[in-house]
Amino acid sequence: MPSHTSSSLAARWRRNGVGPWLVLPAAALLAVFVFRPLVRSLQLSTYASDLIGNPTRFVGLDNYTSLLSDPDFLHTVVISVVIALLGMFLATFGALCAVLLLRGRLPGGGIFNVIFSLPFAYSAASASTVFAGLFAPSVGVLNIILGNLGVPGPHWLDSPVAAVWSIAIATAWYEFGFAFLVLTAAVRDVPPEVIEAAQLDGAAGFRLAARILVPIMRPSILFLVVTQTITGLQSFAQIQVLTRGGPAGATTNLVYRMYQLAFGNGTPDFGRASVIAIVLVLIVAVITALQFRLLGREKAA
Amino acid sequence: MISTELRPAPMKPEADAAPSSPHRVHVAGAWAIARFAAVLVFAAIVFLPVYVSFVGAFTPNGEFARSGIVPSPADVTVGNFHEAMTAIPLVREYFVSVGVVTLQTLGQLLTGALAAYALVFPRWRGRKIAFVLVLVTLAIPAESIVIPNYELVSAIGLRNTILGVVIPYVAAGYPVFLLRQAFAAVPTEIWEAARMDGAGDIRALFTIIMPACRPQVTNAVIWSALAAWNGFFWPLLITDTAAARTIQVGISQLAASEAASPAVIFAGAVLVVVPTILLVIFAQRFLINGLTRGVLR
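Output (structure tokens, whole complex):
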């Protein structure tokens, strides 16, 4: 920022105009609504809270130790990771298969391209709403269809294991759309000479895909693995709409637990909710750092 | 129109192969048929939720149970939409969402363009650090900062208002980043020439730089608008009544209150996704070229 004495300020002003100051609106807003809350969350996480959630007294790391020693909390961490990894894997691997199958000429290829992109049109909330109608017990459309095919459908949201799968499937379905768009762009970026050369060597179909295309598309695949793991860790709408964290806490992930602690029906506990907020920041920071290291290594190699 | 897309298209796999020997014809033909079948099954699975929600929204509740996956066209009804709108004030919430998208997108475009300009053209100390700080915001999960923002927005009296839904997102790191990358690719000579001609910074930005980056600006607008339209966690927390509740929050409540009538839930979901489905159908090529490549570069 321009600073120093008033005369040099005036000189800079003449030379630079208002230019540098144009950063201010965004900088001020990001400071107030992103960086300040981060610091405040850190502060709240070290305070006990009163009956309406306001911080009362400094308790150091008490909130951290009480939460980290709670077996329920460890369960929410595991569930967060399971939902994130399942959703990421189903969406990314599914999209990779779809993109590789669609490569080259295919009757109706354009229509398939649109169909595979459609999930991108759904938000987490609208996809979860659709899946609520699909998974609903007794009236759910999915089990009616499976019943017509002679397959008894599971109780999608009743048993702990099935409920986690249901959340992961709904997550994967709407994330599939974005993954498909990213990988379609990636496969179209593969230089045609490379493919022609591989085909002259006799590589086709599965071998061409596995040996030539997938390695070239690696940066895009890595990008999806990282971003979809991170968004999967932040899953909320699916859980709020489909299970409300149940049955018996089976689908309560970190974000949903934080929501319950801070905004649920009980007395608000901003202190322990903020511990979860900080844990989430740290997890995402570690994954992001890992991504940069992997990408850096890739570029160096 | 939608129901026809599930039916297999006429198969002509042989037309694709350029056979050189009878044996090759067999293998290539079999491979093409297998590939087409795989695509067809895969597409049917991915398309199922779209198909069921659109067809289900226009047929009486329970019709899927009676007549299987293809209900009779004679049963078409708009009753589910009527029921959905009676259960939840969806029309009002629709307008709220349109307002939120408009304000948030304009805000992010304006603050983003100004910041990106300042980060690219004028030279000043701290420019690099400022950009790094913008990048840092991209790695901070939005869920981790809602509690302090909830405190602040409530304290300034904006709880349960459209402004309260929008204000934490009037600036966002990602549009700044997108526009910065776009502006950085504009030759500095163009900017210098504009300044030589006596254009101020604001004029140079809006009459020279922005028009030179039209595709990336459109890209940033689409990203901002999608994020605003799809937002859920924050609007859910900061609103208590339909006065400022967005459509995404509205349909999540519809899913809870109409749990026994999937057809009504589907009608709500259809209302919400129509604008974004049109975007995917008509701007698919743009999404592939712009949105997805923007995130990688």
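The two ends of chain B are 38 Å apart (CA to CA).
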